[in-house]
Amino acid sequence: MIAVANTTSTLAASQRRLEIGAVFSASAATGASVEVHEGMIWLTFSNDPVDHLLNAGESFDVVRHGTIVIQPLRAPARIRLVP
Q1: Of 73, 55, 52, 71, which Cα lies nearest the Cα of 63?
Q2: Whole-model pTM?
């Protein structure tokens, strides 16, 4: 399950459009994933020494509970959060 940071909302499978300059952060549980449907994103995950660059058609699978931070690169991006 992925919850939006700084709110009490919990996201089920949902799509988000991220504009240039936007930063999205969320708490993510084991088994969740982030799919990139448009654009390119930078993604970092708590306690992961590697930053991830994902293009449209790629995804990131959460392997342990933690916080993800996502920012679009070069152009707006469309992502899908999957619990």
Answers
A1: 52
A2: 0.83
